[in-house]
Amino acid sequence: MVRAYVVFTGTGPILLVTKLDTGMQGEDATQHLANKGIKKFIAYEVSQEKAEEHYGMRFTAAVNRLASDKDLRVVDVDGHTVFARFSFAEMGEPVYVE
């Protein structure tokens, strides 16, 4: 199952896609982000349908680049764009990691 997340980092929000069963709280997700220098974040799940609607082929390409069920891919790093495309009402419950 593909999951999309708006992740608020120290430099602003990014949009990620993954197939991780554990979501953003699991060791795989936190380790993957830590390897990229992101050790503290707040993640909100957003619907795959909304992410596809907002990003189209860009979202599909990121999903297709997932190497395994333990992989994460960045769809968008432009915080302004990510923040503008999703309303708070579209975001799930926050996951805090530090």
Entry summary:
The protein has 98 residues and is an alpha+beta fold.
Tell me what the structure shows:
It is a single chain. The protein is globular. The model has no long low-confidence stretch (mean pLDDT 93). Strand 1 and strand 2 form a beta hairpin. It has one domain. It has four helices and five strands, in the order ββαβααβαβ. The chain has 98 residues and is α+β, with helices and mostly antiparallel strands. The protein starts with a strand and ends with a strand. 33% of the residues lie in helices and 30% in strands. Helix 2 crosses helix 3.
Radius of gyration: 12 Å
**Percent helix range:** 25-40%
| Morphology call | globular
- Which series of helices and strands comes N to C? EEHEHHEHE
- Report the end-to-end length measured between terminal Cα atoms: 26 Å
* Major sheet description: 5 strands, antiparallel
Pairing-aware structural class of the strands and helices?
Answer: alpha+beta
The count of domains is: 1
Our count of helices gives 4
- Arithmetic mean pLDDT: 93
Q: Care to count the β-strands?
A: 5
- The residue ranges in which pLDDT falls below 50 over 5 or more consecutive positions are none
Beta-strand fraction estimate: 25-35%
* Spatial strand sequence of the major β-sheet: 4-2-1-3-5
Which key terms come to mind for this protein?
98 residues; alpha+beta; five-stranded antiparallel sheet; 30% strand; globular
